[in-house]
Every structure is written in structure tokens, then in C-alpha cells.
Amino acid sequence: MIRRLLHLVPPGTLAVGAGLALLGLASYVHLAVAGHSLTEADYSSLSVLWSIVFTLGIGVFMPVEQEVARVVAARRSQGLPPGPVLARGAVLAAGVLAVLVVVILAAHGPLTDRLFAGDAAMVTVLIGALVAMAVAYTTRGVLSGLQLFPWYGTQLGVDGGLRIAMVAVLGLTGVTSPLWYGLVLVIAPLAGVLLTLPPVLRAAGGGVPVAWGALLRGLGLLTVSSLLSQVVVNVGVINVRLLDPSDVATAGALLSALVLVRIPLFVFASLQASLLPGLATSATTGDLRAFHSLLRRALGIVTALGVLGAIGAIALGPWLVGTLFDAADVLGHGDFAWLAVATLAYLWAMVLGQALLALDRHRAQALAWTVGVAALVAVTLTPASVALRVELAYTVGSVVVAAAMALLLRRQSRPTPTPTRSLDDALATGVSGGIR
């Protein structure tokens, strides 16, 4: 099955998988070293920073990458240079970044006091990390659209490798400030961009200008889906601090637990590069049998991943978060059970969402994520212990999203041929660097 999926992607996609694997490993090393080096309060602040950075960064800048990649791929098929797309994409990313920075600066006081225990420097690091993600995702869009996947994978690998090296130095030298562990999220991705800049610079300049409409065509719905999907999977840590700012132990322990139970998501990221193009090919030709067969197999794979991950997390999770991350002993086997069920449902939602995208049903995907986040908010506001509320919210939100997507897919039981949709669109958006 995996060999068949790999044949559906352009040469070089394995390099992206290797980069994703290294970047995923870096997340575990980063948090493990920080957990053993920082106090509970400081690790809690880093956990909140981590959750905000990846919720906003992936949520708003991955769609920019996808749209840049889509338009670059379309122009490449016509023999047109990508320079004008890069210029528009850079302006678009800068505009989105400016909006985020204005909002963060306007809420500087509450963010500092409520989420970072009065440490204003962490808000500055937050802005720096978002700048780094804006630059990284925009350049990755060009690399993906040009199918320069070895360069794409190299950027991910440099980012991950440098994160590991930097936190190792911080740990070995006894650094105990969360500021420095946060700065890793600024320096590493920027270094990855700089070291993979040559092909991007060669793509700059020249060519027929790109109309804004070509780049903005699907950006709104993509951004809604991307941002809300990150809210579902990341907002729990933030909510712990919002609901009870004094409970620093639970926030740090929850992030450590989420990193463990979400191991199957890292595996899925490597399969995602081939899943969307495969589904899109079947949808474009109206091949019902191939579309449903690939969808069923993908659901089977993620179900197996989710179940295996759940067994390990429930059995060993409480011990692992203490041993690997030096997290407080505040989460038990039952907490990991809820988180594991939520992750399995989230995996289903990711696969079903790819099916909706392959059918060019961006609006339906956005609707499902909206309904899921509404359910998450409702559960978060119910009276219960803080940990249980955020765990149940993640679980219910993910289940609702997956169920909504399944219902929306059943409304279109047969993929209809869509010759007006270029397969380059699917190939361009099939590779994702959105790993935590």
C-alpha cells in the first residue's frame, strides 16, 4: 500500500519525509531538554508559547504556502517563471503577519500577565517566531510548486537539526531561562530558509505579473480550515492557563502528553504528501472505485496508527511524560485515554478532509472544522476540572469534525469528473511542512 502511494508523488518526496521526520524528532528533543531544565512555571510559559506559535503559524501561513505552491505549479506547467508569484506571496504573508503583530501588540498586557506570568520578553519571542514561520512557509511554497522537493526537505531538515543542536547546547550549559528555549523557534527556521535560499532567489524576478485573484481564490476557506484545525489540536494548553493561570503544572504536563499521543500525526504527515494527489487524480477522472478504495485504505492505515499509539500512550504515558519531559505527575492513564481517542478522531478528520479537498469542496471542509470548534468551546465551558474539560473538548471537537466530514462526503457519493481543476493544484498542496 505504501509503495503504491509513493508512486503517486513526484520524485524527491522521500526527501520531504526525511525532513519531516527530523523536524518531528526535534520537537521531542526540544521539549524534553526544556522540561528537565526549566521550573514548572517556566516550562508552562514555554508550553503556552509553543501552542500559540504553532496554532497561529501553521493556521495562517500554511495556506499561504499552499496557494503560492498552487499558482507556481500552474505557471510552471505553462512555462512561466515563478518570480511574480513569489513577490505576491511575500506581500501576502507580510500582510497577514502585520495583522497578527498588531493584534499581539494590542493585547500585549493581557498576554504577558495571563499567559506568560508577567514575562514580556516571551511576547517578543512570539512575534519573532511568527516572522520566521511567515518567511519559511512562503519560500516552501515556491520550492513545492517548482517540485524542488529535495530543497524543501533540506529546509525542514536544517530547521529540525539546528533545533536539536541548539537545545542540546542550552541543556548542557545549564541554561534555565524559557526565553532562550523560545528563541530556538525563531533562529532554527530562519537558518533553514537562509541555507535553502539559492533556488528561491533564482526564481525571483521577471515574468508576467500575477493577478491577486489567482492567489486569493481559495485562501479564505483554506485559512479557516487550517486555523481551526490547529485550534482543535493545540488550544488545550492555552485554555489551561486561561481557565486557571495558577495551575502551571497541568499546562506543561498537558503539552508533554499531547506530544506523545500525537506521534501518529507525524507518521500521517509523511503519507499526506501522496494521499491528496492520489485522491485528486481519482476525483478528476471520476473513478469511483479508485477514490473509495484509496480513502478506505487511508482510513485503515490511520486507524491502525491511532490504535497502536493509543495502546502505548495509555499504558506508558504517565511514566513517559515524567521520564522524558520531567513533567509533573498530574495526568493519569484515564487522561491519556481521552487524548488518544481524540487523536484517533483527529486522524480520521485529516483523511476525510483530504477527500473533501480532492473533490474541490473547500467550503464543506471549513464548515466541518467550524462545527467542531463550536463543540470544543461548548465542552470547555462546562463545569468540571480544568484538565478533564480540555481533554474532553479535544475529544468531542475531533469526533464532531470527523462525523461532520463523513456526513458531507456521503452527500456526494460519487466523485464527478472535474477537468477544469488542474492536477498540478493537488500536487502543489500535497506536501505539508505543518509539523509541530
TrEMBL record:
Q: Where is this region: Disordered?
A: 414-436
Q: Tell where it localizes.
A: Cell membrane
Presence of the UniProt keyword Acyltransferase in the record: no
Q: How does it sit in the membrane?
A: Multi-pass membrane protein
Name the GO cellular-component terms: plasma membrane
Give TM segment ranges: 12-31, 43-64, 85-109, 115-137, 248-269, 298-321, 336-359, 366-386, 392-409
Using the UniProt record, give the first listed, main subcellular location. membrane
* Keyword field contains Cell membrane: yes
What's in the keyword line of the UniProt record?
A: Cell membrane, Membrane, Transmembrane, Transmembrane helix
Highest taxon, organism lineage: Bacteria
By what name is this protein known? O-antigen/teichoic acid export membrane protein
